[in-house]
Amino acid sequence: MIKCEHPQHKTKPKYICKESDGCSERKNPGVQDEWMENGDVSLYDDTRAGVLMVFFRELKAADAGTYRCGVNVSHYTESFTELQLDVRDDATFVNESAHLGEEVSITCQIPEEHKVHFCKEDDDHICQNISTSAVTEMSPSSERNEERVFTVSISNVSVRDAGVYWCGAETRDTHLTFISLTTKIQLDLFMAPVVRREGESAEIFCPYDSIYKSKSKSLCKGKCSTRDRNTLNETVREEKETKTDRLTLNDDVTASVFTGTITGLTAEDAGKYWCAVTLERDVNYLYTHLIVIMNEELNLTKYEGDDVSIQCKHHDEHQKCFCKAHEPSMCVKDGVSLETIRDDRFSFSDEASTGVFTVNITDLREEDSGIYWCGSHIITKVHLNVNNDKNKDSSMIIIICVCVILLLIGGFTLTVCKLRQERRGDAHTHTSVQSTAQLPTILSDELLYASVSFQKHEESLSEASVTVSKNELYSDYATVNHRMRLN
Question: What are phi and psi for residue 14, nearest 5 degrees?
């Protein structure tokens, strides 16, 4: 950024040109008090202060040279100031991510003899200086002269804080101010991951700044840009609904939130999703992770000292995760991955062509038991149970005891069955003997049964009858022989 001051010619048209070209191409804003783009530079003619501001974007080595910053006083008279622009290859690019509602600090380092300049790009790529009120709102900046480190802390970050920031050194000469922006900070915001199971539906909420309510919005798997489109990418505008086979977008301009709903989740839907507000260029400002938990789980039981190999699916070469946690969302939020495990017993091998990586754990310990999540955005739940030697011996003892008890029960059952069979045989024999035995003659025996044989006497011409009273509790026994004599 170059500021050329012409306080005595506030309303006169101003320009900038390169002397090595003979100033044949003079660049001017054309319109006063408004940022205007002219080729690879943007210009602003501030008639209130009499200042021409020139913003060079993405400097190249060919941009170096001597420039003339002037003002047309009349048709025949002009006033200008020469300046030297040197281009060095020392720019720094930093990516920062912050969770919505949390605090983030943006830091850059500058030479000690220069003044610090901090600004944020607007929608036209112009890096606008952050006003005093804005800095106060986001937390005052601090400067430590001994290290020349400049830090701006932004508390309770919102979607309007996302974007590109620049930090650099500001120097001032007579009627000239140079602002060398050498550190570019891309601040992205992210939301808590969306975790759903295979076959379910997922909703991704995208809040946005209310100034963009009339602009079109996009939900993209991967960065939203004309060069990187995905089949699920769709755009919605002004409270309209956009719907494809499995994706529906709704824009609620009252709440300044648009929502993407994906139904019938599959492993292919898992990944990193960006919310974007599409202006003249694509603006990615907010992202979240969609984690799909596969329905098939893995259950492993091992003993202390054993080794185990666990195979995990992935579709992202740069993001593999093996995490011990109660919920898979903790793995993404805390950034826990295999690389962060400081234990030599854990290692992994990757077979990129098959989309599978294998985690190997040696010399298992009882504390290794628990729930693990492995994969990338495609997550498999793994139950690992590690028993110690004592538990192993106890298990063997329990198994032996159960076997002995079962054998005893089986033997006892067979014995009982055999005894019952023998008793049934004895009872049948006893009954046959009693039916043919002579009846007892002692009345005190109180018999509960009697064997009575009825025969018709051959000499009798009448029928014999026997009457038994129902009121008698006990009865003696008698033998009645009735024979019929044949003539």
Answer: -120, 165
| Alpha-carbon span 21 to 434, nearest angstrom | 142
> d(Cα 470, Cα 468) in Å, to the nearest integer?
6
Q: Which residues contact 111 (CB under 8 A, 6 or more apart)?
A: 148, 169
Query: What count of residues does the chain have?
Result: 487
Give percent of the chain with pLDDT exceeding 90: 14
The token duo for 147 is: 């290290």
Lowest mean pLDDT among 93-97, 140-144, 367-371: 140-144
Q: What is the DSSP letter of 62?
A: G
Distance CA 450, CA 479 (A): 10
pLDDT in tens, 281-307: 657 788 988 889 888 888 999 988 899
If residue 144 lies in a helix (H) or strand (E), which one and from where to where?
strand 142-144
CA nearest neighbour of 216 among 159, 294, 170, 283:
283
d(CA 477, CA 440): 9
Beta bridge partners of 152: 106
Q: Do the Cβ atoms of 321 and 336 come closer than 8 Å? A: yes
Query: What tens digit of pLDDT does each residue of 317-335 get?
Result: 556 778 888 877 677 554 4
Taking the C-alpha atoms of residue 305 and residue 428, their distance in angstroms, rounded to an integer, is 66
The amino acid occupying position 349 is: S
Query: Which DSSP symbol is given to 473?
Result: S
Strand partners, 205: 259
Q: What is the mean pLDDT of residues 11-19?
A: 91
Gap between the terminal Cα atoms of the chain: 156
Between 28-37, 141-150, 240-249, the lowest mean confidence (pLDDT) is in: 141-150
Cα–Cα separations (whole angstroms), residue 163 to 188, 215, 285, 333, 470: 7, 17, 6, 21, 112
> Coil, helix or strand for 181?
strand
Burial code of 443-454, b = ≥16 C-beta within 10 A, e = fewer? eeeeeeeeeeee
Report which secondary-structure segment, H or E, holds 107: strand 104-109
- Residue 438, Cβ density class (10 Å: 0-12 exposed, 13-18 middle, ≥19 buried): exposed
- Return the structure tokens found at 377: 């955005």
Spatial contact of 220 and 235, defined as CB atoms under 8 Å apart: no
